[in-house]
Design a protein that fits this description.
By secondary structure, this protein is α+β, with helices and mostly antiparallel strands. The protein has 4 helices and 10 strands. The strands form 2 sheets. The chain has a 6-stranded antiparallel sheet. Strands 3-2-10-9 form a 4-stranded antiparallel sheet. The longest helix is centred in the N-terminal third of the chain and has 19 residues. The protein starts with a helix and ends with a strand.
Length: about 180
């Protein structure tokens, strides 16, 4: 075998090993489009579904991406996929956020939460088949029991600024808002 072919094979093998070593650990979770879908799951109790859904709804208000205009929000999430947030900008203007399209909770199949925070999930226009967390971590499109990246399972960070133009996952100018209703 020629030396250049040997080097190429060694480099390909090394890159495969390097890529697999960088893969993030996963945790068990459950993803649902609706509360009713969770309730119909035979493994999870109705009370667990309801409490985890309520927790995700509370997180939604705190952690959803916020926009200074409905047009900017809809550019990232689609027409009629945004709502007015209870918060206002410092100047008293409206703030908009995407609709909650599903929620994630700790997998009850594994005997508990296992570090998975109940949280809202969203679908963006550039990747409509997959869910994303409020922190823009890709979850995938599967509902029911699933595995998610450990970093995506953490509680989303509260949003204390608004995006003034498209920006779910992109850089954009932001302005502060107050918690006034």
């Amino acid at each position: 075998m020629k030396r250049s072919k040997t080097i190429a094979l060694v480099m390909m093998s090394a890159s495969t090993i390097a890529l697999s070593a960088c893969e993030e650990p996963t945790v068990d979770a459950a993803v649902f489009d609706t509360l009713e879908q969770c309730i119909s799951d035979p493994v999870i109790s109705e009370s667990q579904c309801r409490s985890e859904f309520a927790a995700a709804k509370q997180q939604h208000v705190k952690a959803a991406p916020k926009y200074t205009s409905k047009t900017d929000c809809e550019a990232d999430f689609g027409a009629a996929q945004c709502e007015q947030a209870p918060q206002r900008t410092q100047s008293g203007g409206s703030v908009f956020m995407p609709l909650m399209m599903g929620y994630m909770m700790g997998s009850m199949l594994s005997g508990g939460r296992r570090g998975v925070a109940s949280q809202p999930l969203y679908r963006s226009t550039d990747d409509p088949k997959n869910y994303r967390t409020a922190d823009n971590k890709k979850i995938g499109g599967k509902t029911g029991a699933t595995k998610v990246a450990q970093s995506a399972a953490r509680s989303p960070s509260a949003k204390t600024s608004t995006v003034s133009r498209g920006g779910f996952g992109a850089r954009a100018r932001s302005t502060g808002f107050t918690g006034r209703s």
